Amino acid sequence: MTNDVIDQPAPPATFATGRRPEQNRAADLLARYRQVRKFSERLCETLEPEDLVVQSMPDVSPTKWHLAHTSWFFETFVLKVWMPEYRTAVPEYAYLFNSYYNAAGDMHRRDLRGLISRPTVPETYRFRHSIDSHIAQLLERADRELLDEIEPVFTIGLHHEQQHQELLVTDIKHVFSQNPLHPIFREQDSPNEKEEDAPAGWVDFDETIIEIGHAGSGFSYDNEGPRHRALVPAFSLATRPVTNGEYLRFLDEGGYTKPEFWLSLGWTTVNEQRWQAPLYWEKRDGIWWNFTLSGMRPIDESEPVTHVSYFEADAFANWSGARLPTEFEWERAAAGLPIEGNFVDTERFHPAPVSASPNDKLEQLYGDVWEWTRSAYLPYPGYHAAPGALGEYNGKFMCNQMVLRGGSCATSQSHMRATYRNFFQPEKRWQVTGIRLARDPR
Predict the structure, then answer these.
(1) Closest Cα partner for 385 from 376, 399, 396, 377?
(2) pLDDT value of residue 195
(3) CA dihedral (360, 227, 327, 292) positive or negative
(4) For the CA atoms of the chain, what is the radius of gyration?
(5) pTM for this structure?
(6) pLDDT tens column, 371-422
(7) Rounded CA gap, 353 and 105, in Å?
(8) Domain boundary assignment for the chain
């Protein structure tokens, strides 16, 4: 698979004369399915079997588990529902590879996934390819009525797999970071030396009432709706993300030693975890380095800072005399902008440097780093989780988490929308999370 087609919507296929519309529709759906599934396996091409089975902390899942869980999803919510003759080869997989869908049955403990030595990696791939084969059989014989039923769940399954592709990348980074050999996931050219980045500019937005949330026929998760009106007061948003160089000045001025910048729980976390810098940063002979998926490198001051928690993002904003944007401000700013940027499709797997020239427009709003907002992850007015296991996808996590927007260099471009609401607990740092500042009118 070449880079220019990775994870992009499959082009319409060419069909023989006389094919029914539902056959064309099923063929397009199957092509998209194969494309997404193939990219998951492409991400594993440079990994050894030993790499695929390690769990470095409870938040991280072994790569093998991701490959199996995404297959379990299609088995559970598609094959077992619409293919009556389907019989799972190993019934115990339903227990091992369920994640948190209580309505789908019992599940193995998340923090013990690294103990699942069997099935082996080859057996996991066989399970995966068996699911692919049965999905192809189901779609090839599906009529219009069946496709109408299958397609919404099937589409969720594809986006679900793209979410796990992102987790696969960030999880293997954490796994490799624990190894003193500092393994390389993908070789990349060393970055060229750049001039010091220009100070960020600001884009001003007037107070207005806007429509927030997803609209239209395209795919979205349930937590992106219902669409509703929201008052967004006047604000300014930084033209680019905060850089490593700017964050280094926060460190140099004792940012991690001054409680006045930190939320109370954040200050407690800093001291309990002994944080002194972003995750993956390491000081060698007075020079800061960071671990990347292409190995250890000196900090590039022009790159967006990443692997910071909400607590760190908020403390930096306080230190700089600004604040984090709300998710409604972010969505207002993103409205109408193209969804372009450094996504996982580029296979760079690392944030790209910011522009060295001053700019008066928003840059790198999508891709590179997920941007923390100051908004708690809560339901929109009128939100109701769907019944059944798929209703557990988002709604039950609406507590003690903060919203992030924009995607990262580990996110698929075709998975992203202006209304996409990612969410994590405020202390989490292993995802590709960064900072964009906002401020109130002066």
Answers:
(1) 396
(2) 56
(3) negative
(4) 22
(5) 0.93
(6) 999 999 999 999 998 887 777 777 788 899 999 999 999 999 999 999 999 9
(7) 45
(8) 3-177, 202-439
417 with 392: CB under 8 angstroms?
Answer: no
Residue 62: CB partners within 8 Å, gap ≥ 6? 52, 53, 54, 55, 113, 114, 116, 171
Which residues on adjacent β-strands are paired with residue 211? 229
Residues 427 and 270: beta-carbon distance below 8 Å = no
Q: At the fourth CATH level, which superfamily is domain 202-439?
A: paralog of FGE (formylglycine-generating enzyme) (3.90.1580.10)
Q: How confident is the model at residue 17 (pLDDT cuts 50, 70, 90)?
A: very low
Among candidate residues 400, 335, 397, the one with its CA nearest the CA of residue 365: 335
CA dihedral for 165, 166, 167, 171, sign (positive or negative): positive
Distances (CA, A) of 74 to 93, 204, 337: 13, 45, 33
Instruction: Give the whole-angstrom CA distance, residue 172 versus residue 178.
Output: 10
Chain centroid to Cα 306, Å, comes to: 13
Q: Which residue, among 242, 215, 239, 238, has the nearest Cα to 228 in the 3D structure?
A: 215
